[in-house]
Amino acid sequence: MYQTWEELERDCLLCEKCPLREGRTQVVFGVGNRNAKVLFIGEGPGEQEDLQGKPFVGRSGQYLDKLLASVGLTREKDLYIGNIVKCRPPHNRDPLPEEQDACIDWLRAQTALIKPKIIVCLGRIAAMKIIRPDFKITKEHGVFYEKNGVLMMATLHPAALLRNPAAKPGALEDFVRLREKMEELGLVAPETFPDEPCP
């Protein structure tokens, strides 16, 4: 078990556990506040993430930041973001089960260092890996589950929201619920937000 972020990141950046290493520009380790008690988990890096070495920096990442801002949260202050797989799958395809299995220990080590009180899965792949294999994202997004003493919720992937704008209001409600849960647990101070249109 890793004792420090520095050791963990050093080893992760050198990872050669699966064939995804062959096509990567760089390993996408994770970003955010390493002392936060909220962990966001995506499925894997896309093209921009692979180029910049950070998760959720492309169009979907920009939309994620808007959703967070709409409830007064930022990735720098309030949460940490990682992915199931740390290297980009070819052509942004879903990471294969064997790729997820090869990579998941890095995320487990990150989780052990953070000790999150809340985990938010971004999209179907992450929810099926982290919450349970038969998770139905369209029906169960925004619902909190408790697993091993940690509250877990899934929301629709920002990329899916950009493809299907009709789903945006439901996703915004998920973020409102997240903010309320964070306030309930004392992770952020209570705050009132003006009624604004969905970003």
Automatic annotation (TrEMBL):
Any one GO MF annotation of this record: 4 iron, 4 sulfur cluster binding
Record keyword Ligase present: no
Keywords of the record: 4Fe-4S, DNA damage, DNA repair, Hydrolase, Iron, Iron-sulfur, Metal-binding
InterPro entries given in the database record: UDG_Type-4/5, Ura-DNA_glyco_family4, Uracil-DNA_glycosylase-like, Uracil-DNA_glycosylase-like_sf
Uracil-DNA glycosylase-like domain: residues covered: 29-176
Pfam families noted in UniProt: UDG
Superkingdom classification of source: Bacteria
Annotated CDD domains: UDG-F4_TTUDGA_SPO1dp_like
EC identifiers of the protein: 3.2.2.27
GO biological process, one term: DNA repair
Catalytic activity: Hydrolyzes single-stranded DNA or mismatched double-stranded DNA and polynucleotides, releasing free uracil
SMART domains, alphabetized: UDG, UreE_C
Similarity comment: Belongs to the uracil-DNA glycosylase (UDG) superfamily. Type 4 (UDGa) family.
Protein name, UniProt field: Type-4 uracil-DNA glycosylase
